[in-house]
Amino acid sequence: MNKKNIIIISVVVIALISVLIIRSIIIGRMEKARDAARAKSCAATQRILTGATEMYNMDHPEMLTSLNVKALLTPSYNPYTKKNESYLREDPTKNDFGCEYASKGDLTQDGYIYCKKHGSVEEIVNKYGR
What we know:
- The protein is α+β, with helices and mostly antiparallel strands.
- It has one domain.
- Helices cover about 55% and strands about 10% of the residues.
- It has helices spanning about 5-60, 70-75, 120-130, and strands at about 75-80, 85, 100-105, 110-115, 120.
- The strands form 2 sheets. A 3-stranded antiparallel β-sheet has the order 3-4-5. Strands 1-2 form a two-stranded antiparallel sheet.
- A hairpin with a 3-residue loop joins strand 4 and strand 5 (about 120).
- The longest helix has about 55 residues, at about 5-60.
- The mean pLDDT is about 90.
């Protein structure tokens, strides 16, 4: 091999190594951003479940003291619209993020809904911001 070929090969190897290093940095940042987006989506779902539970409790004498998605999805008579409506249109707990929702404490008092994977809304906000 002559000197010119060796220089070309070494430039190609250096360029390839540089591309691999940059790629690994970018992929790491993209995974962190994806995790943050999934956690924020989880927090939004928790807020939806909390709001639906509060609306259910305002309309029914038998209040939900713990998370009951089935009750929130079951249509019931709404005297204001005079229609059978549910508090959720679809089950927000069915997602691809591995989230499982539960409640701690009495939801009619100071209880809250949380995700077994990501934690409560407060914990998600503290970790990832709004």
